[in-house]
């Protein structure tokens, strides 16, 4: 196993100074990315930039031998892309995804972490020193020579947007309680930056698939069918992982493992933002095939996993965008009433709050969305989520301007 380079530990023993240094480094790294990355080059993986910048600051303060960072769908906590260059070897990844998303076991499973108040957790501490009793340690960490794992969730209120995983080998100094506290400091600023990266704006210089793609896999992970459109969608997932033999992104692996726990025919969904800034909905379900005798078909009664990949529907995008703005539950209610065209008096009556309180919430909503009025706010959501559905719009699927002014590839006319 090839480990990531481990940076030297910070020289100062002062926890407050170490925290200031970490947050200062992170702030400089994130500001260097630019506000919103407007006008970024086509294909710029913006949220990967956020994860990379955060990792650079975090690993300087809290060194690790193996690490990875992933973005999560806040509705399902499934992986939607991330950084895996210095992550786990491919040999343990199938079992990792099985534990994490199919069995959903382990004291530090991402779903357990999402319910805790503390953003950082150390496996050995969570197991109260009995780490050998952890199935995750036995099946994932120990086989590749790792002794402990530190996890940091990127969470804003009830929504979890990402996860950092840092591991050290048996020959490395163990993580300390001070390092766990220090690592937790990156959660809030990194979450804000990650959410903002999901509101990417810019200009597309290439088309993206319009139709849904279909992929079929068996329980051994073999691909039975993958349409050309599915290949194109999967190629747009924001994920950096070069292990040999890994054809599809781990985003797909997480979804397939989660689908295996559902009843046949029940769909499991996840949403990911692509390299072009378009949102993609991945839907997976299990189904038995009985058409034996045809080449490529499953054997009679064999259960396969089917995955559909398509552009996200406007109603999904509206929810995603409202979440990405980081609205509180009350601010989200007010925002929804704005989109429905309700007046301040109507909001006051429906929400049972004073009109001046409604106005205060409106100001906060507009500040977070970067607009100045109800009209601007409604226009922002309409442009991002609904306008692209009109015939031959000058915008792409997520509301960004087309380079050709709206002309589809192959179209003619003035």
Gyration radius, to the nearest Å?
Answer: 23 Å
Following the backbone from N to C, one meets helices and strands in this order, namely HHEEHHEHHEEHHEEEHEHEEEHHHHHE
CATH class call of the largest domain: Alpha Beta
Across the major sheet, the strand order is 3-4-5-1-2-9
β-strand percent reads: 15-25%
Shape: globular
In round numbers, the mean pLDDT is 80
Span of the ends, CA to CA: 58 Å
Shape-level CATH architecture of the largest domain: 2-Layer Sandwich
Descriptive account of the structure:
It contains 15 helices and 13 strands. It has 414 residues and is an alpha+beta fold. The protein has 3 domains: 15-197, GAF domain (Beta-Lactamase, 2-Layer Sandwich); 208-313, 2-Layer Sandwich (Beta-Lactamase), CATH 3.30.450.20; 316-402, Winged helix-like DNA-binding domain superfamily/Winged helix DNA-binding domain (Arc Repressor Mutant, subunit A), CATH 1.10.10. It has a 6-stranded mixed sheet, sandwiched between helices. The chain has a 5-stranded antiparallel sheet with strand order 8-7-12-11-10. It has a two-stranded parallel ribbon with strand order 6-13. A hairpin with a 5-residue loop joins β7 and β8 (223-226). α1 (15-32) runs antiparallel to α2 (46-61) and α2 packs antiparallel against α8 (187-197). The longest helix is centred in the first third of the chain and has 18 residues, at 15-32. The termini are far apart. The model is unreliable at 35-45, 201-206, 291-298 and 386-414 (pLDDT under 50).
């Amino acid at each position: 196993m090839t480990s990531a380079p481990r940076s030297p530990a910070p020289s100062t023993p002062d926890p407050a100074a170490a925290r200031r240094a970490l947050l200062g480094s992170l702030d400089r790294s994130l500001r260097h990315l630019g506000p919103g990355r407007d006008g970024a080059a086509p294909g710029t993986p913006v949220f990967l930039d956020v994860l990379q910048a955060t990792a650079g600051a975090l690993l300087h303060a809290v060194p690790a031998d193996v690490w990875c960072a992933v973005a999560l769908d806040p509705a399902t906590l499934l992986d939607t892309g991330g950084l895996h260059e210095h992550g786990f070897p491919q040999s343990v990844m199938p079992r990792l995804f099985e534990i994490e998303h199919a069995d959903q076991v382990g004291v530090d499973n991402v779903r357990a972490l999402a319910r805790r108040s503390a953003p950082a957790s150390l496996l050995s501490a969570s197991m109260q020193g009995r780490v050998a009793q952890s199935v995750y340690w036995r099946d994932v960490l120990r086989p590749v020579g790792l002794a402990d794992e530190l996890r940091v969730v990127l969470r804003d209120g009830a929504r979890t947007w990402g996860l950092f995983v840092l591991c050290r080998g048996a020959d490395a100094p163990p993580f300390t309680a001070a390092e766990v506290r220090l690592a937790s400091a990156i959660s809030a600023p990194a979450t804000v930056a990650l959410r903002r990266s999901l509101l990417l704006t810019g200009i597309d210089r290439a088309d993206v698939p319009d139709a849904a793609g279909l992929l079929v896999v068996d329980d051994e992970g073999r691909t039975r069918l993958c349409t050309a459109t599915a290949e194109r969608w999967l190629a747009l997932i924001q994920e950096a992982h070069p292990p040999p033999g890994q054809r599809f992104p781990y985003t797909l692996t997480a979804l397939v493992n989660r689908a295996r726990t559902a009843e046949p025919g029940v769909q499991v969904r996840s949403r990911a933002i692509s390299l072009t800034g378009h949102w993609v909905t991945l839907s997976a379900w299990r189904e038995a095939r009985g058409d034996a005798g045809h080449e490529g078909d499953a054997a009679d009664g064999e259960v396969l996993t089917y995955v559909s990949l398509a552009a996200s529907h406007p109603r999904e995008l509206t929810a995603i965008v409202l979440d990405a703005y980081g609205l509180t539950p009350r601010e989200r209610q007010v925002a929804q009433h704005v989109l429905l065209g309700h007046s301040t008096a109507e909001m006051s009556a429906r929400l049972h709050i004073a009109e001046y309180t409604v106005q205060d919430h409106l100001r906060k909503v507009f500040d977070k969305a970067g607009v100045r009025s109800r009209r601007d706010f409604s226009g922002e959501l309409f442009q991002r989520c609904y306008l692209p559905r009109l015939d031959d719009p000058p915008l792409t699927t997520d509301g960004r301007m087309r380079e050709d002014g709206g002309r589809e590839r192959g179209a003619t006319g003035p």
